[in-house]
Amino acid sequence: MVGALAAALDAVPAPAAGPRVLAVDGRSGSGKTGLAAALADALAAPVVHLDDLYPGWDGLAAAVELLRGVLAGLRGGGAVRHPVWDWAADAYRGEVRLPSTGVVVVEGVGAGCAGPVEVLVWLEAAAGVRRRRALARDGEVFAPHWDSWAAQEERLFAAHDVRARADVVLLPGGEDAGPGAGRARWTRAR
User: Fold this and answer.
1) In angstroms, how far is the first alpha carbon of the chain from the final one?
2) Could you tell me the CATH superfamily of domain 2-186?
3) Positive or negative, the Cα torsion across 41, 163, 100, 56?
4) Are 25 and 113 in contact (CB under 8 A)?
């Protein structure tokens, strides 16, 4: 699947300025981070992790607005920096610099909500599988926030139907399947 997504990105005309952007979206625990890491390796691309942009557990909508500015900056063709949220300090600390050319992978809940990208991927997984994965990844720190985060996801995806706009929807390949190991449904002609 990673090779097919890389080929799809390569087939899209480059933007007038800035890097090509491939966004990986889906609900918590659907496998976005793993797929983005595999894509970043294959494409030799940096990754914008929305976990770095969310200003805390109630910050999903705010991170999408911040990402909107990051994407606009990339489209401007200049070097772009974005802040990094320090979850322990409950504040932004540090920043990440993104390239003005090449490819950038964006991953996280809301990655497809902030503006046009060259390729948009939506990942699906059953709610129980997603919860087990998210809690295994983030430990019990996520557990008390799961319901409120899921409610933010509901509001966000009701306002931005990312799945309907995705170029490809990756369906589950099994509970323990690796990134992008499921079936793909391409919505844009390839």
Assistant:
1) 13
2) P-loop containing nucleotide triphosphate hydrolases (3.40.50.300)
3) negative
4) yes
At residue 134, the pLDDT reads: 82
Beta bridge partners of 97: 81
Q: Provide the residue ranges of all domains of the chain, joining segments of one domain with +.
A: 2-186
Query: 3-class SS at 123?
Result: strand
Report pLDDT digits (tens) over 37-46: 999 999 999 9
In whole angstroms, what separates CA 188 from the centre of its chain?
19
Task: Provide the greatest CA pair distance for the chain.
Answer: 45
CB 182 within 8 A of CB 172: yes
Residue bearing tokens 């997504």: 5
pLDDT band at 183 (very low <50, low <70, confident <90, very high): low
Higher pLDDT, 127 or 84: 84
